[in-house]
Amino acid sequence: MITIRFIRQDGGTQDIQTEPGQSLMKAAVDADVAGIDADCGGTLTCATCHVIVEAPWAERLPPPVADETDMLDFAATPPTAGSRLSCQIALKPEHDGLVVRLPAAQH
C-alpha cells in the first residue's frame, strides 16, 4: 500500500491508501476525495482531475505528454508549476508519501 496526501484549498488534508498500479485519479475517486470530479473517467478529454503536485514530488514524476499539457489549458483553475491531470499519473511504490494540492475549482 502507498499513502497519498491531498491538500484542500482550506488547508485541510485527506490521506488515502491505495495499491500501486492505478492512476492517481482512480485512487482519488475510489476514496471519495472531494475536488476530483474526473468527468471523463480518465480518457484525457477533460481537465476535471487537475491537481498540483507539491515539490519535490513534481520532479520525481515523468513529465507530462503534450496532450496533457494541452488539456490543462482548459482547466477551470489556471495551471501553475506542478499542475498535472491525475488521470495521467500512474502510481508506483516509489510514490508512497506523494503530496498534491487540489485546485480552487474543477468546473
Summarize, please.
With 107 residues, the protein is of the alpha+beta class.
Topology at a glance:
Blueprint: E1 2-7, E2 13-18, H1 24-30, E3 50-53, H2 57-60, H3 66-72, E4 83-85, E5 98-101
Write up what this structure looks like.
This protein is α+β, with helices and mostly antiparallel strands and 107 residues long. It has one domain (2-101): Beta-grasp domain (Ubiquitin-like (UB roll)), CATH 3.10.20. Helices cover 17% and strands 21% of the residues. It contains three helices and five strands, in the order E-E-H-E-H-H-E-E. The chain has helices at 24-30, 57-60, 66-72, and strands spanning 2-7, 13-18, 50-53, 83-85, 98-101. A five-stranded mixed β-sheet has the order 2-1-5-3-4. The longest helix has 7 residues, at 24-30. The N and C termini lie far apart (31 Å). The model has no long low-confidence stretch (mean pLDDT 96).
CATH class annotation: Alpha Beta
Number of domains: 1
Task: Give helix and strand order, one letter per element, not per position.
Answer: EEHEHHEE
**Span of the ends, CA to CA:** 31 Å
What's the CATH H-level homologous superfamily?
Beta-grasp domain
User: What spatial order of strands do you see in the largest sheet?
Assistant: 2-1-5-3-4
Rounded radius of gyration (Å): 12 Å
Mean pLDDT: 96
What is the strand tally? Answer: 5
Q: Give the helix/strand class.
A: alpha+beta
For the largest beta-sheet, the strand count, sense and barrel status come to: 5 strands, mixed
Form type: globular
Q: Characterize the quaternary organization of these chains.
A: single chain
The CATH topology annotation reads as: Ubiquitin-like (UB roll)
CATH architecture: Roll
Helix fraction by DSSP (H/I, runs of at least 4): 10-25%
Query: In what range is the share of β-strand residues?
Result: 15-25%
